[in-house]
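Q: My labmate handed me this sequence with no annotations at all. I'd like to see what the chain might look like in three dimensions before we decide whether it's worth expressing. Could you predict it?
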Amino acid sequence: MESATLVSPTRRPRFRRAADAPPFCLTDDDVEIIRQLARHRFLRSTHIAALVGRSLDRTNDRLLRLFHAGYIDRPRAQLDYYWKSGSAPLIYALADRGARLLVERDGALFANLEWSRKNREAGRPFIEHQIEIADFQVALLHAVRERGDIQLLHASSLLAAAPAATGAARNPFLLRAKLAHQGWTREIGVVPDLIFGLKFADGSRRCFMVEIDRGTMPISRVDINQTSFERKMRVYLAAHAAGQHQRQFGWKTFRVLTITTDCHRIGAMMEAARHLRIPHSPGAALFLFGTWGDLRGTTPLAHYWQDGLGQRINLI
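A: Here is what I predict for the chain of 316 residues:
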């Protein structure tokens, strides 16, 4: 009697590259995955599938091959997710070999090419913050695609249309403003977590800066030298009043979206915004607030945000 021998499929390690890497031939679609990781820093496999327009199964197969070939990383800071829930989507980042590929292929400019070292040093709070930014970006992209009558302007498009001096800056999205406090003036900067625009059929556009608030930063502090959400709002108001957005980006105006943890925190933020007095600024109406819970079951475009005065505002 003959017996059949069952051969188990090779199970490769999740967080280190296998000696027996799967067969691999780099494709143009793979390069687009690498570009997306360079653009977003950290992404889940589900984000990548949505951004490149592939099925999740096909995306996961290419991600596995790109990882074992050394083009992308799986940051080890996510390891503690998997002893609790092995089915959670993996998080990916650009690796050194992927960065070198983009330099050769696209002429990409990086301050340094030690991406794998930076990935190893990145802690969970930083990675989780970047993942929340990606959550919002992908939701926004889906919402725009569903409508068809609105164009999403990514940060790169807005930067390309900005004055040349802005494009040449080391951190072009750093917004600086002078704040007066207790008889002295100090220049303080803020970098939004995300910048995007919506372009409409008539050629008009609306521009937004986004803050992803994880509930860890104090809303207000007595000492303005210490970070707080109120200090961020002061900078946005003072920069708007000074026309910094016009000089730096060529925008007529902008609004600040904040996605945070719960309604109580929104209430405290709105209260702080209403007490800020910055001459020639839009005041609390500059800010729009929502929670992740608010956005479940809807989209950033369909959702009605609350402005700092408590009015319901739609982005379109």
